[in-house]
Amino acid sequence: MAYEQILYDASGGIATITLNRPDKLNAWTGTMEQEVREAVYAAEANSEVRVIVLTGAGRGFCAGADMGGLSATASSTQTRSLGEARERMQGDAPRREGIRTDFAEKYSYFPSVQKPIIAAINGACAGLGLVMALYSDLRFASDKAKFTTAFARRGLIAEHGLSWTLQRVVGLPHALDLTMSARVIMADEALRMGLVNQVFPAESFTDSVIAYAQELATMVSPRSTRVIKEQLYNAQFQTLQEAILVANDEMFTSLECEDFKEGVAHFVEKRPPAFTGY
Fold first, then answer.
1. 212 and 226, same domain (yes or no)
2. Which of 31, 132, 160, 224 has the fewest CB atoms in 10 Å of its CB?
């Protein structure tokens, strides 16, 4: 499929989605939102793909919403009804059968995708860019990356569920700091507060992220990652007892699966695994 504002490549078990407006630091647009969603769902449906990597072309990951779009929204609140402005900002949320409603809103669908999603943050990550990074399962940053929520400095608020995701990643005190001040932090501080999982040198950033993605694609059961991802996200809405009961059921199911047999066999035989996802 041809895309206007992203690049898509699927090879070696990894689907790479690259935001491709480098002259605008990959500022987010409605077209980009639709194309990213289509590409993520295409990667999810591709049986050869086991890991999805989201990154940006050029110097930035995503510098937030395109300022042209923000200007149009600001104008619409003055010249049109509030309902029309709300429709412009929110748009139509994607809906899929069997998905928890929390993970079925316009930007909150990443947790419902049945494959790991890695945000490879190569540069500036602000506003909506940070929203998408937080919905990703893992976040790796270049040592040249910088981060800001940005919203408060635009007269806005914590958008699209960031008030929920950010404090679960960095804790309430850091979340209050980052949202209320909207200050810029660098990769080393992002790592200290837990906003990112790892920081790699810019010179080897892409290779380091791909090496991690390849390990996920080849060394672990895709069925296990699928179930574990669902467990961990759903556990945020469960009691401990509910999480234990789900785990018990899933464990017995796992014992009957081919990937369990292969997991034992490759360990005993001291060879690389050949997981099938079944």
1. no
2. 31
Same domain, 264 and 187: no
Q: Is residue 235 part of a domain?
A: yes
Strands 117-121 and 138-142: parallel
72 vs 240: which has the higher pLDDT:
240
Q: What is residue 8's three-state secondary structure?
A: strand
Task: Examine the pLDDT at 1 and tell me if it is beyond 90.
Answer: no
Q: What is the pTM of this model?
A: 0.91
Residue entry with tokens 């469960």? 238
* Domain CATH code at residue 24: 3.90.226.10
Mean pLDDT of 208-231: 97
Q: 262 and 131 share a domain?
A: no
> What value does the mean pLDDT of the chain take?
92
> What's the CA gap between 85 and 79, in Å, rounded?
9
119: exposed, middle or buried (Cβ count in 10 Å: 0-12, 13-18, 19+): buried
Total structural domains within the chain: 2
What letter represents residue 244's amino acid? I
Specify whether 33 is located in the same domain as 153. yes
- Among 90, 133, 135, 129, CA closest to 110: 135
- Closest residue by Cα to residue 136 from 121, 119, 123: 119
Q: What does the block give as tokens for 36? A: 């990213």
Beta bridge partners of 7: 18
| 3-class secondary-structure state, position 271 | coil
The DSSP secondary-structure symbol of 149 reads -
Q: pLDDT tens-digit profile of 29-74?
A: 999 999 999 999 999 999 999 999 999 999 999 999 997 755 455 4
CA distance readout (Å), 150 to 53, 126, 133, 161, 237: 24, 6, 14, 15, 28
